[in-house]
Structure formats: C-alpha cells, structure tokens
Amino acid sequence: MNIFGAMYDKTMQWSKHRFATFWLTFVSFIEAIFFPIPADVMLIPMSMSQPKQATKLALYTAIASMLGGMIGYAIGYYAFDLVSDYIQQWGYQHHLDTAISWFTKWGILVVFVAGFSPIPYKVFTICAGVMQMAFIPFIITSFISRYARFLLVAKLAAWGGEKFAAKLRKSIEIIGWSVVALAIIAYLLLK
After folding, report:
1. Which residue, among 121, 173, 151, 170, has the nearest Cα to 47 in the 3D structure?
2. What is the model's pTM?
3. Are 20 and 53 in contact (CB under 8 A)?
4. What are the residue boundaries of the VTT domain, all occurrences included (predicted)?
C-alpha cells in the first residue's frame, strides 16, 4: 500500500501552490487553538522546495501561531468551563494536567519550553489563560519560542532541500508505517 507516498507527493505539490503560505499560516493559527495537525507538516515541504524562503516562512508561521495562542489564552481565561468537556473528549486532559503542574512550578519558563515540547501547543495556550498568566510576557515568550522552533525546522528542511526530499520520498512508506506502529503500541501501553 502506497498511502504515505501518495500523501507525501500531494503535500509536496501543495507546498508549491500559490496559496501555500496562506494555508501554512492558517494551519499554524488554528493549531495553537484546537487543530491536531502541527504546522510543521506544511513548513517542512515548503522549506525544502523553497529554501531561500525558509526564514520568512518560519516567521509567518510563528506570528500565526502566536496570534492563535492569543485566542487559546482567551479561551482558557474566559471560557474554560465551556471547552473543558472537549479537552477530555479529544484526549488532552492528561496533557492539560501536566501543563498546569508545570505552570505552577515554573511559571513563564513553561511557555518557552512549550514551543519545543511534544505536548500540543494548544494545551499550553489554554492553560496559560486558565492560570491567568500575565498576558504580555505570555505573548513575548510564545513568539520567541515558536519562532526559534519553526526557524530550526525550516532551516533544517531548507538545508536538506530537494535532495533530501527525494531521499525522504524513497523511505516514506517505511517511516509512515513505523510511526503508525509506534502510535498503536503507545496507545496500547498507555491504555
């Protein structure tokens, strides 16, 4: 089954589309609020296919993520009771509990680390609002951490460029099915 190869080809095709930058920023914005797919899914192929634009793409992605983070913060601050059931349904409750304990222990430093954490960023944006973290330090720290992360990802992808894209394409089925297998194993172990 060539599922991941077809998805990879489509993603690479989309990365060169004239509206790709819009979709990259849109995905980055909504990912900081509720969307489960990170912006990296678009940032990486776009940076590989447009290496000279990698820094600019990382900046756009970080700005959109920060703006989405502001909405996530507002949800946590003003409407947490309305969304708490969705957080449980979507399987983020454990992540939220972890983030709250981190906020209690380390404060603003958690927002910086969250930019690089495997825990979805939306959890931290909503949690920052729930914890009523100071808004301006939240925004500044969010931007710095998200830009650092996206710049690192974009520059690595740009450095690999089209040559890396071709090598990745050859191994995408193995990588894709390995990730699926690891996700199933993790789910079964954590169940």
Report:
1. 151
2. 0.77
3. no
4. 37-154
Per-residue pLDDT of the chain (191 residues; tens, 9 = 90+): 678 778 777 777 877 888 999 999 999 999 998 888 888 888 988 998 889 999 999 999 999 999 999 999 999 899 877 777 777 777 777 877 887 888 888 888 888 888 777 678 888 888 889 888 899 999 999 999 999 999 999 999 899 887 777 777 788 788 888 888 888 888 788 76
Token pair for 157: 């992808």
Contact (Cβ atoms closer than 8 angstroms) between residue 84 and residue 47: no
- The residue segments making up the domain with residue 16 are 3-190
Give the whole-angstrom CA distance, residue 55 versus residue 48: 12
How many domains, the chain? 1
Contact present, 14 and 23 (Cβ < 8 Å)? yes
